[in-house]
What does this fold into?
Amino acid sequence: MNRGTVVTEALELLDDVGLESVSTRRLAKRLGVEQPSLYYHFGTKKDLLAAMAEAAMAPHADAPLPSPEDDWRAWFQENSRSFRRTLLMRRDGARLHAGSTPTGDLDRIRRKMAFLVSSGVPERDAQMAMLAASRFTVGCVLEEQADTGATDGEDLPDDFPVIAHEEAFEAGLALILGGLGPRSAAPGRTSGAPSPT
It folds into this structure.
């Protein structure tokens, strides 16, 4: 048993039972070891959850970084979509991620920020837009993963719109991007780029 094995099994346990039911006792039983042996790899459950959150982000963390010739608007959209897809890959993925610190991803974040700035987005606006998009995405996935679909809008007034999760996400993302666009110094490279609206 090594650290990677523990994290892999912990993520499988997460998918099976949900975040509320993930415990070191259950994980030790799944691994066929005594519970104290887990503390050789992780001093606390919080340390284990942080490692799980980082590992769960691997599909997004492995996505290609932007190239200088990329349209920044199209990249911004796809980066947020990739983040959403990755959160949805795991049961309670958004809850697992919420509050985690991306310590293993700092260099990638810096390179993404540098791309936006070099594309004409003011540095502070680029920082705030990335933060807003990240938190918006986590919030959307939290709602989506908490939605059991039991009522399907039956308890809402007839004139209240029932909007699918992906549609709501795309609309909100377009609004964030639409607010950022006019603040950038450069219009961006538009060849093949989807409209932000």
Remarks:
- The two ends are 50 Å apart (CA to CA).
